[in-house]
# Entry
Amino acid sequence: MALSAVGLWGPNQPTPATAGAPGFQIRQGEIVLPKEFRADVRSLPQVAAVPDGEPLPLRQPPAPSGRQVLPGATEPQSLAPSQATVASMPAPTLNFAGLSRTDSCTGGQCGSGFPPDTNGDVGPNHYMQAVNTSIGIYSKTGVQLAAFTFNSFWAGAGTGTPCDSNNRGDPVALYDPLADRFIFMDFAWSNTSAGPYYFCFAVSKTGDPVAGSYWYYAVRGDDDAHPWLPDYPKGAIWPDGIYFSANMFDLRSNPEQFQGVRVWAFNREQMEAGLPLQSVVVDLGSSNYFSLLPSNLRGNQPPSGTPKYFVSETQVGYAFEVFKFHVDYGGSGSSFTGPTRVSQANYTWPSGAIVPQPDTSTKLDTLGDALMMQNQYRHIGGAESLWVAHAVQTSSTSNTGIQWAQIGVTGGTVATTPVQQQKYFPDTTLYRWMPSLAVDKQGNMAVGYSVSSSSVHPGIRYSGRLSTDAPNTLGQGEATLVDGSGSQIYTINGSPVSRWGDYSAMTVDPVDDCTFWYTTEYYTANGGNWNTRIGSFSFPTCSASASTATPTATATTTLTPSTTATATVTPTPTTTGTPTAAGTATATGTATPTATATPELSFKLYLPAALNNYE
# Structure
């Protein structure tokens, strides 16, 4: 079912959505002025570190009940829920330690709180890893080049926002292959229950994330009419923008109230040029939607006019929900449409902390059935697809496995039945969860995840398939990145810590568009010092030719900046090309953006100052 929706509004002034629309509200974000970091990150100062704190419960809606299977959602007859493991998956070519909780970074201890929220991305010469609450930058041979806390990096920014000294986690690291830039962010606030809440963006000026300097953008994620925490933010690259989403929670109420999902489009070219930053913000206005993942571009670009895709899981059935976001930064032509429901094989919802580990009765949290980062977009041989994955069970007493799917979106038409999907359970004893997948230029897919059982310490494994494998299978079996040698056994205020990750990250190298890079957490010994690992591998069938992605401008923007910030700006930046949203659902409306120097942004927020568990 595809519904058109819009209702454009000015900053902090919501208006009713168009009659018959599901309640989406769209507005122009306020202009955010940049600050500038003109130095090598290895010269950052030592500052006070964020203290370890008490983990908070994961913010999520109630467990779905009464879900219905949509027509066409049956698991393929040729595929049983379990699949025997084969030994064809390539071994790691690189395998090295990432940041650990008690490591020393510039600014203090690298890790803070639980879980680490490990993720990262790879560029031509560097790998950038993000954890709570630090960034690690490595050569592509595994040498650590720099490691620093977010508070250290922002200490001299002078934005006058909580980004300058109150960074609280939920980090995201991205590489933009269209412009050869690294982007990392986390959220910040001074008052946990009342905000305001900020996203803290750092954008490299060059392809060198160590010595190339950065632009700072402190963007407010809530607003006066919606004073809510933007939780669990997720980001992605698209030709016309850097897109984010977050789940909005009202922390002033008891209990906290989920208010709906907010998504953002930030003008990519402005952000990477250090110009005053425009954005478009959408509030979905309903608790029926949760955790939308933006599509992340790798390899061939989408056809001109292709909208941004977001994918979530319906809260009322077994289906993926696909939304389209067409952005007009300088005008009133933005639209956010959907959802189109894509059938999904049914499963059992993994409820809370159910993953066993050796040497303890403490079990680990699966995060339920939330879709895991990233929603990967691929355009190969004229076919366009979105790839997603999450953890599932086959029954309330089974182990957990990985459900993944390829959703067809060729030409802007969302196919209501997946190209392929699978519930991957190679055995009935080992728990697999916290997946992240990626796809190389040949259409080969790899998915990484955590593993554990009552007799196997939490470790890191990955599986995959060649594009020529039988549909609906991970035909290359499973390989190990690292075996764990310890369990998470740690208490805070007398309560055991069960939170594990919030996400992991599988990405593809832009140099060859073949090599997969994966990072997540594990333990080398029983206790509370989480460790992380970074590894790479590739399928032998994928050649090492360069990626075909090239930068193009896809949004029309006219803006005359006026700023007193330290950033160097160039008046009237202009990009050309006007995207046209494809598909059957469209929305119209009018809005007049107000160009002011007040930061306005979206992001995912972090936990309380006294309770630093990064959600």
In short: The mean pLDDT is 84.
